[in-house]
Write a structure and sequence with these properties.
Elements lengths: L8 E3 H6 L1 H11 L3 E5 L2 E6 L2 H25 L6 H12 L2
Parallel strand pairs: 1-2
Antiparallel strand pairs: 2-3
Length: 92
């Protein structure tokens, strides 16, 4: 989903004039379009399905971050040791 500078940066005016064509481009390429006002980035339009994928990936990342922090801080147990203690505790 790399941005194409020549195709994916458009002005708000261009969006108003060519809404259907820009939406078709977004659906076809699956790339976002950056909208500009007076030459400065103002907003980004993304295909709805691509947005869902991005949102799902971000939500998974939020779940993983605390685990990575635990590992950095040494708050973990090796799997072998964990299962050994688990089996002992459950008398398996």
């Amino acid at each position: 989903m790399a941005l194409s500078i020549t195709e994916d940066i458009r002005s708000i005016t261009e969006l108003k004039r060519n809404t259907s064509a820009i939406l078709d481009q977004i659906h076809k390429t699956k790339r976002p379009v950056v909208l500009t006002v007076n030459g400065k980035a103002e907003a980004v339009i993304v295909d709805a399905k691509e947005y869902e994928k991005i949102t799902n990936a971000f939500n998974l990342l939020k779940l993983i971050l605390p685990a990575e922090e635990d590992i950095k801080e040494g708050r973990f147990t090796e799997a072998r040791k964990f299962f050994k203690e688990f089996k002992r505790g459950k008398k398996i």
